[in-house]
Amino acid sequence: MLEDSEDRVETGKVQPEPENRQQMEPSGQRKGVMHSWLRDLVISVAVSAFIIIFLYQPVRVEGTSMLPMLEDQDRLFINKIAYRLGEIQRGDVVVFLYPHDHEKSYIKRVIALPGDTLRIDHGQVIVNGKRISESYVPRRFVDDRSQPEMTVPGNEYFVMGDHRSISSDSRDFGPVDRNLIYGKAAFVYWPMDQAGVVR
């Protein structure tokens, strides 16, 4: 027995319902459902905005310079926080602002890091005196271009497309400043049959 409780309910007695109770409940329930739905929508939008602004951003590939890994019109997520927490590595596929027009973004693979020496001998890339293994470049995509030896300046990265014979990259516009690189290609989500991690 709970004598101090304000909301006592005694068994055996039934209090009559107010006449308008049945009319009020559906309206109240609807308001509750709408409030809950609106709250969930606002939270979802806020979380999505946070992810897009700070963590991952969807982008669309335009062009074929990253074939066969990325095709024209592929959709992928780029990781925007990866290089705030860690370092850019050789082999990473990065998204950056085109050095000569910051309204455009390019996607290429990092070939050489700041301080590396690099030369290209008839399509063969040599970094720090060693020919690098490039399994991501099919033989039919290799071109015959050469480039004299250079040292990549501090805070800059030498990038190239995987489809070497058609790619406009650091061989044309030079190494890319670290401040222009704003994301790491992470995951292709469209088309669905090509979905997967970018390597």
From TrEMBL:
It is found in: Membrane. Keywords: Hydrolase, Membrane, Protease, Transmembrane, Transmembrane helix. Residues 36-190 form the Peptidase S26 domain. PROSITE patterns: SPASE_I_2, SPASE_I_3. The keyword Ubl conjugation does not apply. InterPro entries: LexA/Signal_pep-like_sf (IPR036286), Pept_S26A_signal_pept_1 (IPR000223), Pept_S26A_signal_pept_1_CS (IPR019758), Pept_S26A_signal_pept_1_Lys-AS (IPR019757), Peptidase_S26 (IPR019533). GO terms for molecular function: serine-type endopeptidase activity; signal peptidase activity. GO terms for cellular component: membrane. Residues 1-29 are annotated as: Disordered. Its EC number is 3.4.21.89. GO terms for biological process: signal peptide processing. This is Signal peptidase I.
